[in-house]
Amino acid sequence: xxxxxxxxxxxxxxxxxxxxxxxxxxxxxxxxxxxxxxxxxxxxxxxxxxxxxxxxxxxxxxxxxxxxxxxxxxxxxxxxxxxxxxxxxxxxxxxxxxxxxxxxxxxxxxxxxxxxxxxxxxxxxxxxxxxxxxxxxxxxxxxxxxxxxxxxx
Length: 153
Description:
Blueprint lengths: L1 H18 L3 E3 L10 E3 L4 E3 L3 E3 L5 E5 L3 E8 L5 E7 L5 E10 L15 E9 L3 E11 L2 E13 L1
């Protein structure tokens, strides 16, 4: 049991590191009702965030934050990853997971829990870039969401 928990922890941390995001785990809730997200340079209120979920084209101002939410159930094999065509224009600054039943994720618990995953992106400088979100099932791409981003001063 302990080996499984350690293996799962290593797996999730590795995924986050590969995605280029710093992990933030908040028990319960979603981006819409979380108080703030910390990006190492201060807290950002939810009103400061633009929702990218379901969008195909978005215009942001420099330093504006945007979020993309996705279904996650890692013990079953559901997850998402992202690719940014130009990281100098937009960058992923945070990632978080809100578990549906956070008590099920405590050490010593067996299995996993379904969750809402969130990527937080920041507009860094004017220009155009594309974010592609890939929804995965057991490592295979099941859906791609392409979002064209224009960043203005």
